[in-house]
């Protein structure tokens, strides 16, 4: 089947480009201390998770307990939930899940640590912990090295918990278009993190894992204290990465059909219900326009460089692949505009 026969709007992935992106990431981390732990939230697809594992990824990163359950259900046995799990019911489910895989979770609160330990003891399981250190994202994580050490000591007291290392995620640097600014901010983070690790070593704390990083800073992480990279977007690439001169190309597209055209305005049958706009409007493959305006079911493309007719297909490049994938049940794999496979988005909507 040719992609022109796909009912739109639909999510498609150029298989060749996706595999080239995997090779590009391999080239970046080859011969370095970094191990890849791709982020599941970018594709939410168990088949792609297994493709990454078979290609050498040490395990998978995810954002939610429900995603971790989906990964475990398909056989992935090394899973990091790169967030805090604090709801009592979820903590019990987390402790049970830890009996089926090697499960790591982030922590930044003493009471939460003790609740995790209590649940793990009741379930007879072991939960691995990364203490999250705030290095500029202004989201989760403790602020000082003394707080990190205090939480490490609490974890060490708990029989069913294991202190594994540090999460230090600096997503705020990932999309900085100025390469010098991106490097300066990242170097400052390295310095702060290095001081933390020295402090922990002085206090006889063994740190096995330093996890974080993203697609936009992957190349900068190769010569640093990090040994685990959580990049996810590299596989598909966001349109918002277009000005960063990264060695990855767009492989993910929302295939759409022109439904109306008049006076320089082209309207297509995809909108915010099928293409995430939380990081900006989509780009247009092999075309451009002066302005993209979004509504629920449509994108209005003003003054296309290459005019299209009603019924023509167009490939939109999502501004953010992660939020876009979460809007679809399936992904069509294509080669030279021919459909060669179909993947289910097994973790679609799993936000708990």
- Could you name the ranges where pLDDT drops below 50 across 5 or more consecutive residues? none
Mean pLDDT: 96
Rg result:
22 Å
How far is the N terminus from the C terminus?
A: 36 Å
Helix content: 25-40%
Shape: globular
SSE arrangement, N to C: EHEHEHEHEHEHEHEHEEEEEEEHEE
Proportion in β-strands: 15-25%
Compute the number of strand runs: 17
Structural class: alpha/beta
Sheet with most strands: 9 strands, mixed
- What is the overall number of helices? 9
What is this entry, summarized?
Helices cover 29% and strands 24% of the residues. With 352 residues, the chain is an alpha/beta fold. A hairpin with a 4-residue loop joins β13 (289-294) and β14.
Structural overview:
The protein has 352 residues and is of the alpha/beta class. The chain is built from 9 helices and 17 strands. It has helices at residues 15-29, 46-54, 65-73, 88-97, 110-123, 145-157, 179-202, 218-221, 321-325; strands at 10-14, 35-36, 60-62, 78-81, 102-107, 127-132, 161-167, 209-212, 228-229, 252-262, 265-268, 283-284, 289-294, 299-304, 313-317, 330-335, 338-344. A hairpin with a 4-residue loop joins β13 (289-294) and β14 (299-304).
């Amino acid at each position: 089947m040719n992609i022109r026969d796909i009912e739109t709007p639909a999510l498609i992935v150029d298989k060749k480009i996706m595999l080239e992106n995997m090779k590009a990431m391999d080239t970046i981390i080859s011969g370095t201390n970094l191990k890849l732990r791709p982020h599941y939230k970018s594709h939410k697809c168990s088949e792609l998770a297994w493709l990454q594992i078979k290609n050498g990824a040490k395990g998978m990163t995810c954002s939610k307990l429900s995603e971790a359950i989906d990964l475990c259900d398909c056989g992935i046995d090394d899973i990091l939930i790169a967030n805090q799990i604090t709801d009592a019911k979820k903590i019990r489910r987390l402790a049970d899940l830890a009996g089926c895989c090697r499960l790591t979770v982030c922590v930044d609160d003493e009471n939460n640590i003790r609740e995790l330990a209590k649940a793990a003891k009741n379930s007879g399981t072991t939960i691995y912990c990364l203490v999250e250190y705030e290095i500029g994202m202004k989201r989760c994580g403790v602020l000082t090295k003394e707080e990190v050490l205090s939480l490490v000591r609490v974890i060490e007291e708990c029989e069913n918990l294991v202190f594994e290392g540090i999460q230090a995620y600096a997503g705020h640097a990932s999309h900085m278009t100025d390469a010098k600014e991106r490097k300066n901010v990242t170097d400052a983070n390295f310095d702060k993190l290095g001081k933390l690790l020295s402090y922990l070593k002085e206090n006889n704390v063994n740190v096995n894992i330093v996890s974080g990083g993203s697609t936009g800073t992957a190349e900068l992480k190769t010569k640093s204290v990090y040994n685990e990279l959580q990049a996810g977007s590299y596989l598909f690439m966001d349109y918002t990465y277009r000005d960063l001169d990264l060695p990855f190309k767009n492989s993910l597209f929302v295939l759409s059909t022109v439904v109306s055209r008049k006076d320089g305005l082209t309207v297509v049958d995809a909108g915010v219900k099928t293409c995430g706009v939380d990081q900006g409007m989509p780009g247009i493959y092999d075309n451009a326009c002066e302005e993209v305006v979004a509504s629920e079911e449509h994108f209005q493309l003003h003054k296309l460089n290459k005019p299209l007719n009603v019924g023509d297909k167009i490939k939109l490049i999502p501004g953010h692949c992660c939020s876009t994938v979460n809007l679809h049940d399936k992904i069509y794999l294509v080669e030279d505009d021919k459909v060669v496979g179909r993947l289910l988005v097994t973790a679609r909507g799993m936000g708990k």
